[in-house]
Design goal:
alpha/beta, seven-stranded mixed β-sheet, 7 strands
Length: 207
């Protein structure tokens, strides 16, 4: 166990012992299933605490009051499972983990049950769900123009958008602006200076 990385994560997030324990168990489950199902790049697992856990948890600093989240294309559980772990115990907190692939949903369900998380796994297309949340999020799902189409129903129901993106985020936003009228903000990721956090306050399809 990488104690230095855990200590750094704890300092960044003020994580409790229980949250560290839950994240450590999640890492064990992910490592085991990743050997047969390639949920994340194997080379990234040793850097779990920064590359995956802190990358996900930093979203809570941007929306600290938000209790309900939808993670579209939840995949391996980033950011959704991490958010559910960090929100666990807060009254009214819930995370919807939405993915179209059954085997990923089965893994996510195992994690939710093992860690008793305030989360619901939904096997289906993101844009077909009727979930009402405060924040809709995603990581490594699709280019911004398509991601906004997936998220549009959530925006219509009052959600804000907070998406984890890479170095091409600005170019993706420029491309998306051909299809969408956006009120957005870009900030540098605190887990990797090459990453970007895209905040969407309002969006509507251009006519």
């Amino acid at each position: 166990m990488n104690q230095a990385a855990i200590a750094q994560f704890r300092a960044q997030t003020q994580a409790t012992d229980q949250q560290i324990a839950d994240l450590s168990r999640f890492l064990e489950m992910l490592t085991e299933v990743n050997e047969v199902m390639n949920l994340v790049g194997p080379a990234t697992i040793p850097d779990f605490w920064n590359r995956h856990a802190w990358d996900s948890a930093q979203l809570l600093d941007l929306e600290p009051q938000a209790l309900t989240w939808a993670d579209l294309g939840a995949g391996a559980g980033f950011p959704g499972v991490v958010l559910a772990i960090m929100l666990k115990g807060r009254e009214g907190a819930h995370v919807w983990l939405i993915d179209s692939l059954g085997k990923r949903c089965r893994f996510l369900q195992q994690v939710v049950e093992a860690l008793d998380l305030p989360a619901t796994v939904i096997n289906g297309r993101a844009e077909d769900q009727s979930v009402v949340v405060e924040v809709v999020t995603a990581r490594a799902v699709a280019p911004m123009d398509r991601l906004l189409a997936y998220a549009q129903p959530y925006f219509k129901r009052g959600a804000k958008g907070l998406f984890l993106k890479g170095e091409k985020a600005e170019a993706e936003l420029q491309e998306a602006a051909k299809v969408w009228h956006l009120e957005s903000q870009l900030t540098v990721s605190r887990s990797d200076p090459r990453g970007r956090l895209v905040q969407i306050r309002s969006v509507r399809r251009a006519r």
